[in-house]
Amino acid sequence: MAIEDNLNAAPTPESTGTPPPLTKNQEKNEAKRKAKMEKFLAKKAAQEAKGAEATGNAKPKEKKTKSVPKPKDTFVNTTPEGEKKDMTLEMAGSYDPVAVESAWYSWWEKQGYFQPITDNGEISAKGSFVITAPPPNVTGKLHIGHAM
User: Fold this and answer.
1) What is the spatial distance between Cα 113 and Cα 107, in angstroms, rounded to a whole number?
2) How far is it between the farthest Cα atoms of the chain?
3) Which of 38, 69, 81, 90 is 20 to 30 A removed from 107 (C-alpha atoms)?
4) Is pLDDT larger for residue 110 or for residue 71?
5) What is the mean pLDDT of the chain?
6) pLDDT(89) > 80
7) How far apart are CA 77 and CA 99, in angstroms?
8) What values do phi and psi take at 117, rounded to 5?
9) d(CA 112, CA 123)
10) What's the number of CA atoms in the CB half-sphere (13 Å) around residue 88?
């Protein structure tokens, strides 16, 4: 009887070669996938048409040249040695350390800023002026050198 039951049973999708029916969610997902594929194919066809149209009357691309910065004017120090900086010239548009600091050092020397001065205000002849600097901060914590 088991053989007769198999013969009378409804055919299964595997036996007929057709896929099983889709559920509602599967149908929805399949519809989305098809719509997405159609949109993609339309976009691809439009790009190919635009590409074919562009190659027909395409102009050769021009190479971009790098803009070469104009050379800076070289600074000539007109300030007399040991005098304050001459500010009669027009200022530069940006900071140029050579132009800005050109007369400072000689003026500092003339003013005696590097002379060791004692507590009573006299210039000491026994040594040179030294500013002590703390060692590098290796630990990352503040130390007495940060207060100097």
Assistant:
1) 9
2) 129
3) 90
4) 110
5) 78
6) no
7) 7
8) -110, 135
9) 9
10) 4
pTM of the model: 0.36
CB 28 within 8 A of CB 36: no
Identify whether the C-beta of residue 96 lies closer than 8 Å to the C-beta of residue 72: yes
Question: Over the stretch 15-43, which tens digit does the pLDDT of each residue have?
Answer: 667 778 889 999 999 999 999 999 999 99
Query: Using alpha carbons only, what angle is made at residue 97 by residues 96 and 102, rounded to the nearest 5 degrees?
Result: 115
CA distance 67 to 69: 6
Cβ neighbours for 104, distance < 8 A, ≥ 6 positions apart: 85
85 class by beta-carbon count within 10 Å (0-12 exposed, 13-18 middle, 19+ buried): middle
Structure tokens at 51: 């590409």
